[in-house]
Each structure stands twice: as structure tokens, then as C-alpha cells.
Amino acid sequence: MKHATRINALARQASGAVFGIAHGAVLFFGLAGMAYLGYDDGSRPAIGYADLRVQGKAAPTVSEAAMAQADAYRAQPALVVPQKPEPALVAPSTRKSSALASLRMPDFGLDSGDDGLSPEMLRVRDWITDTYRVPGDVIEPALMAAEESAEEHGFDPLLIVAIMAVESSFNPRAVSNMGAQGLMQVIPRYHQDKIGQGRGKYALFDPTLNVRVGTLVLQEGLQRYGSLQRALQYYNGSLKDPNARYTRKVMAIKKRLVAASGRETVVRNETPASAG
To answer: pTM above the 0.90 mark?
Structure first.
């Protein structure tokens, strides 16, 4: 019994050894066959690891291809479309060089121009433009109003123009510390009856209205005090000045205006009381 058991054990060991030898032989011949396929007439292998890696690389996915296409598009030079030069908004020749060109007044519907001024006042306008550097189209409405108001109330229009020169230097937007406004520096709260009801607080910046109201104030002074000198001092609020300095200043400017106007006859030694 023991003898039979030993024989069976030896048989199992022999079969295991045979299986191991057979497995080794298969592995050997397999490796040998691969080596044979890798050589070409005894030369070095024709295919290397790096070649196998490149050949085995997977094709790009759809998203990768789209990204590559976008990168290639961005890399292209941008298409430049030539632009036409824009025309200049304002021709250089139309620009104003005068420092007072900003004094353009709103359109009050006034008609102005050479046809509205007398030849005498046209020469005065040119003198004012040269002396005070005020654009002609700014001062023309005021000069027209001076001629009309002076004729209506019996004054020399150049006297009205002289008051404008002294009061505001022909600045239609002038405002004093006392609240006087415009060319003839009229204080609204004192002369609302002359301005009229329903007008705004900036009504006196209208050159025509300002000159008309200023002429009415001068007429009021003349009616109260009987002489032009006193009327001018009343206009300036300086009735107590014994030297009448305001009157003298206005009359001096008037003489210059008379000379500029080209009047053939100039009253010599004109006194404030008789000058109208």
C-alpha cells in the first residue's frame, strides 16, 4: 500500500516537470520567432520603439480639431479695411479769433444788418468793433435800438451809445454787484414798470429791450430834474456828486463817437446841460 502511494507521488512530480519543460519550450520558440521577424538579413531591427509610439498615436478628436482650426484662424493677419477720412466739421477760415466771440446772444427775432443802420451809425459800429473788439453782429441790434429809442424820446442816439460804452463796454451780458444787467446796466427791481410784466429775469439781456428801458430811465431823470447833467447823474445814482464825474465821462465818450460818425458839424464847447 505504501509502495503504491509513493509511485503516484513520483508520477505527479514527473508530469509537473514535463509541463514546465513544455511551457518553457513554447515561450522560447515564441521569442525566437519574434526575433526572427524583427531582423532583415541579419541587420538591426527596422522598427524602433519611438516609431511604434508615433504610429500608434490616436487621431485628434473633433473638439481638438476645432480648436486647432480656431488657432489657425486667429494666427492669420487681420483684414484692414481702408477708411475714408472724415470731413472737417468746421473750416478753419470760419473760426472766430475774437476774444468776445462768445458773446453771441440768443436769437430774439431781431432784424439787423447794414440796411437797418444809418450811414452815421454804420461808421460808429465799425469804430466800436475796432476799439472794443466786439463783433459787429453782436452790437448791431443795440445800435438800431439806440437810433429808434433816441428818435422817439428826443435824444441824440450817440448819447445812448456813449452810456452803453461807459456802463458795460458793450458787453450785453454784463452784471454788476448791485444786480444791474446788460448793455445799459439797468437794475430790474427798480424799473419793473418799464420792463413790463411777464418777462423773465434775464429779459434785460435782450439788447433791444435793454436799450429801450435804459432810454426810458434817462428820460425819467430828465423829466424829474430838468437838465441832462442831472438826468445822467440820476441814471448813475450819483446825484450828490458835485463834480458830476459820471456826466463828464459820458460826454467825453460821446465826442469820440461824434468824430467817428463823420458828422460834418460838431458843436463846440458842448455843455452837459445842452447836450442831447
So the answer is: no
